[in-house]
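Practice problem 4.
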């Protein structure tokens, strides 16, 4: 503390001497005072420079290396923090892997539910798979995101799961359904919705499941929605569902040829179907020169009766 006071006193004496010499030079224009002034100024610079350099070095050292603390407890805490960080990174990787496993489990659950439909109605099982494939192709062409396509995939594979609540005698009946039986069949979208509504990962696809039998003109079921009030998933699956139903063999009838089914879609666009989605689907099928879309969706030879 005493040394610091001496340094300050010395600096003050130099500053006062500098000011006095500068004032005398201004009054008398005596060159000797000018020399004294510059000498005093030089003394100040030389006196302050070593401290400034030392401070600069200290700052560089602090910025350039990890600080070390004299208190050993602080160093222990820092080490523990580094170890905790590494452990958190490890846990994060484990959680990512666990999330992937959950997603795979979700898919297995969905496929098990789809298989339960097939156990009641063999047509419905293959039908759901094909509707899923067609719907995803249309969704890609519409420019839906990969996340939306994934939600649509789940919705399409499960769109007929409500048929679990329908009597097998009605589902597998040979011949035309009575009005009463048809009204029973019409309940399956709502049954499916109620079965799946509490499954968190399916929530974004629920509207499509509930609405895949709504009509563009508002004459569909279960709620008589019209136009764009029907979700995009519902409008896509409506086209895919109808196309597969028309071209698939049933116990009581043969499936249509692809060309006839396409003509039926064209005839009913704007009434039963969203015209934009029909046009897009027809375009996809027309450009499918190598038959890859048909082959991917109908690898079970459903189209054996088709000249497409």
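Answer key:
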């Amino acid at each position: 503390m005493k040394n610091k006071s001496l340094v300050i006193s010395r600096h003050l004496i130099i500053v006062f001497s500098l000011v006095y010499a500068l004032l005398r030079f201004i009054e008398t224009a005596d060159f000797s005072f000018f020399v004294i002034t510059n000498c005093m100024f030089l003394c100040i610079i030389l006196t302050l420079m070593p401290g400034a350099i030392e401070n600069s070095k200290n700052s560089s050292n602090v910025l350039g290396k990890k600080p070390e603390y004299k208190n050993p407890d602080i160093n222990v805490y820092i080490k523990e923090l580094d170890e905790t960080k590494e452990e958190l990174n490890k846990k994060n990787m484990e959680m990512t892997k666990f999330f992937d496993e959950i997603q795979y489990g979700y898919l297995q659950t969905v496929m098990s539910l789809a298989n339960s439909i097939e156990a009641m109605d063999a047509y419905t099982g293959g039908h759901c798979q094909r509707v899923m494939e067609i719907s995803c192709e249309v969704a890609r062409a519409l420019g839906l995101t990969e996340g939306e396509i994934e939600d649509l995939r789940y919705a399409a594979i499960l769109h007929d799961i409500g048929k679990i609540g329908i009597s097998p005698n009605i589902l597998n009946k040979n011949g035309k359904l009575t009005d009463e039986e048809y009204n029973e069949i019409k309940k399956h979208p709502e049954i499916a919705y109620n079965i799946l509504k509490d499954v968190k990962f399916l929530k974004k696809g629920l509207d499509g499941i509930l609405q895949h039998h709504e009509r563009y003109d508002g004459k569909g079921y279960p709620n008589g929605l019209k136009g764009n009030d029907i979700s995009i998933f519902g409008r896509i699956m409506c086209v895919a569902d109808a196309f597969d139903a028309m071209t698939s063999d049933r116990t009581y009838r043969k499936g249509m040829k692809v060309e006839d089914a396409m003509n039926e879609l064209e005839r009913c666009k704007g009434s039963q179907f969203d015209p934009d989605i029909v046009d897009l689907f027809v375009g996809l099928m027309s450009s499918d020169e190598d038959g890859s879309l048909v082959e991917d969706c109908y690898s079970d030879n459903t189209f054996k009766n088709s000249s497409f």
